[in-house]
Design brief:
- With about 650 residues, the chain is of the alpha+beta class.
- It is built from 20 helices and 23 strands.
- A hairpin with a 4-residue loop joins strand 1 (about 25-30) and strand 2.
Length: about 650
């Protein structure tokens, strides 16, 4: 390609073309095809690109280096397309200036073919940097608008504009109102729903007084105390409300403009924390009392059991002793309720059938009652991992509550169902499979003002109530990683719902052994700081053939155990009280005994069941657990189970025991 084709244009026309290019901040170029290199570039090249014309023409290949690296492949593809298809293509790219600065250009490239000449490329480069910046600013603004809109579409803050008229009719509401309140935008704007109609009836007067007070005081903005509204589906939620007062030129109030935020989750979390704090404060006292009381009950239960074994059933004191034993077992239930409050208490769990537990508890409590009841269970109901004693106590408390709510008769309906909770659920429980128990009655219901307090410890509306039943139940289910909730309508009845995590564990049936099948000859060391408990344990175990030594503290137990090994007659099992006043307790004692015998079999015992060792005894090296107050039969069974296959070396037990006892 030869000559300056631009020179073929007459001077006046050439000048007008240059002026036009200057106005649009563009330049004209021409390039050969093979290879693609500049043969002409207009005079304003340096002004637009930073490089003089001489550079473009003296180094015609260098243009490739000044295309931004991320755009090169695309630009080269466009040029190849023009050459292949002999057409015109328009594209945009970033140009790298002499100091590394990036400038956006639009290039219109055309394939030119004239008779008698080699084909060539002709292009017009136009600087579009300002347009690109404007587009980016617009895109950023749009993204901001979208983000802001999403706050009101997906968030829990709803914008309202109310007219200053009776009922506060809504003039504007943000699109996410249906998500938070359940009502549509149209229902508010058409007046079928006004704001005042959704405020909870017990909070409406308070909210109205706050509006009047703020309006009369001349403020422009104010915040309400948190209040409740009722969603379309009947769920009650809590709101934080920030309101601006709008006035006309005469100072008259025309509208209220503000936003409300759903704080239900935070409010419920706050209430749960308050309950836990109450439970913790009660637990500090209750745990210690129950521990000491359980030691006393263990002694009483042991004495009564031994007495009943020695007195014939037809003897006159036998019936009275049975009644006394029943009274002790009732007292055990009371201490168990107290211990539930103690900080850190964990249930001792195993796989169980809730249906069986529900039927047993309901049958026991409602047998012979004037009330009717029905139990409906889903087929293939999942198993749960629970402390059956504790959950039985929950069922007992809930059924008794329903019985007391229907003094003139009625029906209790219990349903058991499998339930799967998604990642986000209103129960605020972890995702997974649960078993739900719903217990409904036809009683008098619970008043709205009382409902939030029923799980508080020592809150009761019954003259002879303790206020522990429902509080205990709530604590037990919480410690099972479940949920106990309630709904009630005055004069229509109450429904309690229990959710417990499902488990795939198999139910292990413990073999039932009579007392005469628990005999053995194993050597047993009993450590307890209560002399009566030690004596009863010794008498019961020796009655079944076991050889027993006693220790009043950890230090004594360690000394006994060490001497027994020294004489070649080690103990087969040790029973260790977890808490020893003024001495080494069961856990520390076990650590020392394991140094002497790593294979030691140990039973942990305590009346302070809130200690994690009691719930997870195996994790701490124990082989079994007996919780005070325990029966002597339970204690003997635990020893029997651990020593069932032991081969005991015959010894003179009296002589050895005398030598190892300090």
């Amino acid at each position: 390609m030869k000559g300056d084709r631009m020179g073929e244009i007459g001077d006046p026309n050439r000048q007008r073309l240059k002026n036009a290019l200057t106005c649009i901040r563009g330049l004209i170029w021409e390039a050969s095809l093979d290879p693609v290199q500049f043969t002409y570039i207009s005079d304003n090249a340096e002004e637009l690109t930073g490089f003089p014309n001489t550079k473009w023409l003296s180094a015609p290949h260098s243009w490739r280096e000044h295309i931004y690296q991320e755009d090169q492949e695309r630009v080269f593809a466009h040029i190849d397309q023009v050459i292949k298809n002999k057409n015109t293509v328009q594209f945009e790219y970033r140009f790298v200036g002499p100091h590394g600065e990036l400038t956006w250009f639009k290039d219109l490239v055309t394939y030119v073919s004239r008779p008698g000449e080699d084909p060539f490329l002709q292009g017009i480069m136009v600087n579009i940097q300002q347009r690109k910046e404007a587009e980016e600013a617009e895109a950023k603004a749009q993204r901001t608008l979208i983000d802001e809109r999403n706050i009101f579409v997906k968030g829990n803050a709803v914008v309202f504009k109310w007219r200053n008229e009776e009922g506060w009719p809504v003039e504007y509401v943000s699109p996410n109102v249906e998500q938070v309140f359940g009502y549509s935008v149209e229902e508010f704007l058409t007046g079928s729903v006004s704001y005042a109609t959704i405020i909870h009836e017990h909070d409406l007067e308070k909210v109205a007084q706050e509006v009047v007070s703020a309006s009369e005081n001349g403020v422009t903005t104010f915040q309400h105390e948190v209040y409740r509204v009722t969603r379309q589906d009947g769920e009650v939620i809590w709101l934080h409300d920030h309101t601006n007062i709008l006035r006309d030129n005469e100072g008259e109030i025309t509208h209220y403009l503000g936003y409300v935020v759903d704080i239900t989750a935070a409010k419920r979390a706050e209430e749960e924390l308050r309950k836990l704090e109450k439970l913790e404060s009660v637990g500090l006292l209750a745990g210690g009392i129950a521990h000491d009381f359980n030691n006393i009950l263990t002694g009483l239960l042991g004495c009564l059991t031994l007495s009943l074994d020695e007195i014939p059933e037809n003897a006159s004191p036998h019936e009275e002793l049975c009644l006394a034993k029943d009274a002790v077992l009732q007292a055990k239930n009371i201490t168990q309720q107290l211990l539930t409050f103690a900080k850190g208490g964990d249930p001792v769990r195993s796989a169980a059938s809730l249906e069986e537990l529900v039927r047993e508890t309901a049958s026991f409590l409602l047998h012979g009652s004037s009330l009717s009841y029905s139990i409906q269970s889903e087929e293939n109901l999942s198993r749960t991992s629970i402390d059956t004693g504790q959950v039985s106590q929950v069922l007992h408390n809930l059924i008794v509550n329903s019985i007391q709510a229907m003094p003139h008769g009625g029906k209790i309906t219990i349903q058991l169902q499998n339930r799967i909770l998604p990642t986000k659920n209103k129960e605020r429980l972890p995702q997974g499979e649960y078993v739900a128990i719903t217990l409904s009655d036809q009683g008098c219901g619970i008043p709205d003002e009382v409902l939030p307090k029923i799980f508080d410890p020592y809150f009761t509306t019954k003259p002879d109530g303790s206020g522990l039943g429902l509080a205990t139940s709530h604590s037990i289910i919480s410690k099972h990683n479940g949920l106990l909730s309630v709904s009630s309508t005055s004069s229509e009845g109450t429904t309690f719902t229990v959710l417990l995590p499902a488990t795939s564990d198999e139910i292990v049936e413990a073999p039932l052994l009579e007392s005469n099948n628990l005999s053995g000859t194993a050597r047993v060391l009993v450590m307890d700081d209560e002399a009566l408990i030690c004596d009863l344990a010794k008498r019961s175990l020796e009655m079944h053939g076991y050889q027993v030594s006693l220790a009043s503290s950890g230090e004594v137990a360690i000394a006994c155990f060490s001497k027994a090994i020294e004489y070649g007659y080690p103990f087969d099992v040790v029973i260790l009280d977890l808490t020893i006043r003024g001495g080494i307790g069961g856990l520390e004692t076990l650590r020392e005994l394991q140094k002497l015998d790593p294979q030691i079999k140990a039973i942990v015992s305590s009346g302070y069941s809130n200690d994690p060792v009691m719930a997870n005894y195996a994790d701490y090296g124990f082989s079994a657990v007996v919780t005070k107050p325990y029966s002597l039969l339970d204690l003997t069974r635990a020893v029997h189970d651990l020593t069932l296959n032991n081969v005991i070396k015959e010894i003179d037990s009296d002589q050895v025991i005398e030598r190892i006892n300090p």
